[in-house]
Automatic annotation (TrEMBL):
<dbReference type="InterPro" id="IPR003781">
    <property type="entry name" value="CoA-bd"/>
</dbReference>
<dbReference type="InterPro" id="IPR036291">
    <property type="entry name" value="NAD(P)-bd_dom_sf"/>
</dbReference>
<protein>
    <recommendedName>
        <fullName>CoA-binding domain-containing protein</fullName>
    </recommendedName>
</protein>
<feature type="domain" description="CoA-binding">
    <location>
        <begin position="19"/>
        <end position="113"/>
    </location>
</feature>
<dbReference type="Pfam" id="PF13380">
    <property type="entry name" value="CoA_binding_2"/>
</dbReference>
Amino acid sequence: MTSTAGTWTPPTAQERQAVLRRTRTVAMVGASPNPARASNFVATYLLGSTDYDVWFVNPNASEILGRPVYPSLDALPVTPDLVDVFRRLEDLPDVLDATIAAGAATFWTQFGLYDEQLAHRGVEAGLTVVMDRCLKVEHARFHGGLHLAGFDTGVISARKR
């Protein structure tokens, strides 16, 4: 991933895979206790299918999936390697600032969240920036197969059933 005047180049598949391999701690900003929300689905996957230490950040919740929720990144008892963002586009600048202040290595935004100027700012601050990608989908892609519905089937084959 590079950032030059006027152009930000997102990380390649190999670079994203490297990010996932070196990540140990994930903070989910905007995680929701509502099982119908994408963040809850991703959280369920991360807790059940990865070795990541997952932390939830949401000032309006106290517990998600039986785990404590923190009001902000600076309230976490750990420094996250990766901050996975489930917030509105207009909230991203503040979340980026908090990610930089927290000392995280990666700023990751979910599907539909893309802001090239913000990506430049993150890269300039020393972060790896991944935008408009689902952490769950990317992890499943690199770790054993991905069904069209987004479920890990555990089967890797081109053969028709």
